[in-house]
Amino acid sequence: MDFQKNLPCPNITTNDVYYRRQLNFVSFNIHILSNNQAVFYTYDESVAKKGANEECSMFNHFVYNILSPEVTEIAIFCDSCAGQNKNFTVIRFLHYLVTKKSRFNTIKVIFPIRGHSYLECDRDMSIVKQNSYIETPDDWREVLRNARVKPSPFEVIDCGIDFDFQNWTEYLSSIYPAKCPFATRPIRMLKISVENKPLIYHKPSYFGTYYSSPIEKLPPKKSKKKKPQNSSSGPLELQNCYSGKLSINAAKYRDLLHLTQFLENPEAKMFYQNLTPNDLPEDRNDEYIDDPPIDAGNSGEG
Q: What is the pTM of this model?
């Protein structure tokens, strides 16, 4: 599994694109090695961010909606990006699937050596035509669906504002310790087993034996003081990360509005106009719209 390269939106043939910022189209790819099925979770930067909470939410959807329930053991190959894969939120989430939800018996995570690996997710992205003419995020989704025919087309999921991007970091912090009991940077392999629920196994190489570390939160010490009757114990409720669309950088919004003059689809123009900049004035008017570029061939000179 891997986050793919951010794709620009719109991706159109005009020189102004070189000088203007575009909307980021995000895709998270999960490739099933056993049958070569590939799933792309897609959204743009006005819907969600690109971090551990988003990855856990999409992987959770994959486990309970796409992966066969007969699968009880999995091996995950992913890169060592600390903000996305190799962090304590993802590690706790995988342990949660095994020990709390009893979804798997064993999960192994393998982190290939940086610069010496070529994951199937990279191969999936290499066949996507990245110079396609694109006006909206839906156009990128159509390109992904048509990028592969055999053994099966890519399955593309639109993670719109109705998709449950949940705050797993906050939720898991009420169940597990806040700090990882071992250094994650040198880790090459992780193993989580239902047979040893309180522990997580890890090793800094692909050979040798595993080291073990306790990962579950220790029970609180007994206190002579009586707790108030209205005090609550146990994990927090799992909350959504976002309550609506995210705002984007105001300068980027200005650039996007400038590029809408080159779009052919009126709905595409409306899509960008409906975005919200982070310092939107009360009167959204010509302040955010540039004059059209001067055509060098018709500048009035000569």
A: 0.87
